[in-house]
Amino acid sequence: MDVSIILPTLNERQSLAAVAPRLDAALRPWKYEVVVVDDASTDGTREFVTDRADRNWRLLPRPGRFGLASAVVDGIAASTGPIIVVMDADGSHPPEEVPQLVGPIQTGRAEFVLASRKVPGGSDSGLHGIRRAISWAATIMARPLTPVRDPMSGFFAFRRSILPRAPLAPVGYKIGLEILVKCRPEPVVEVPFQFEERLAGRSKLGSNVIFAYLRHIGRLYLWRARHWGRSSSSS
Question: What pTM was estimated for this model as a whole?
């Protein structure tokens, strides 16, 4: 196995049907697996995955909805590839961009590669109105924690070997930020991508997601303060 793709889902049957063949085509150069972590979908998402006559795709069902970040953590634990890619199943993260995430890690040029809307060539045209404002505010809040331009991207790849550096305990949706802050991958590469509108269904963004992010960002600031305090005392 070369690459493991982690796809968290909640009622993404329609978009997943469009994304799946594109993702298979993008991953053709590698031995790969796609782990679909599903939180109690009722629209046929689980049946779509289990009905695929494809050994590369497998379903990791969870009995209730626990949130995207924990779904990614569970998917990582169930996967086997040395390179892990995390992306959305709704089509907003183009599968055709996966090779540019995997490439720098496979060649040793990066431990973590982030698909960024904020570097030259990137775009967030798929964000509108309040979602754009919330993304901007969340990015400002995360800026002291990491030098990357687009910590809210949610579309990234990393080498599995960085995970033992720190325990992961994310809250909400931003598992990528958790890994960047706690595991301190080096080097980190940002590559441009065009964030697109979801293919089908409704966005999961709501007040509960916003409050979860605020909790998460607070916990990361506390973690960093404790970690830096230990580092200073030991030196």
Answer: 0.89
User: 3-234 in CATH: which number?
Assistant: 3.90.550.10
- The two three-digit tokens of residue 140, written as one number: 């400002």
Residue corresponding to tokens 């990234």: 156
Q: What is the 3-state secondary structure (H, E, C) of the chain?
A: CCEEEEEEECCCHHHHHHHHHHHHHHCCCCCEEEEEEEECCCCCHHHHHHHCCCCCEEEEEECCCCCHHHHHHHHHHHCCCCEEEECCCCCCCCHHHHHHHHHHHHCCCCCEEEEECCCCCCECCCCCHHHHHHHHHHHHHHHHHCCCCCCCCCCEEEEHHHHHHCCCCCCCCCHHHHHHHHHCCCCEEEEECECCCCCCCCCCCCHHHHHHHHHHHHHHHHHHHHHHHHHHHHC
Of the pLDDT bands very low, low, confident and very high (cuts 50, 70, 90), residue 232 is very low
Question: How far is residue 221's CA from residue 111's CA, in Å, rounded to a whole number?
Answer: 23
Q: What is the mean pLDDT of the chain?
A: 88
CA–CA gap between residue 87 and residue 175 (Å, rounded): 11
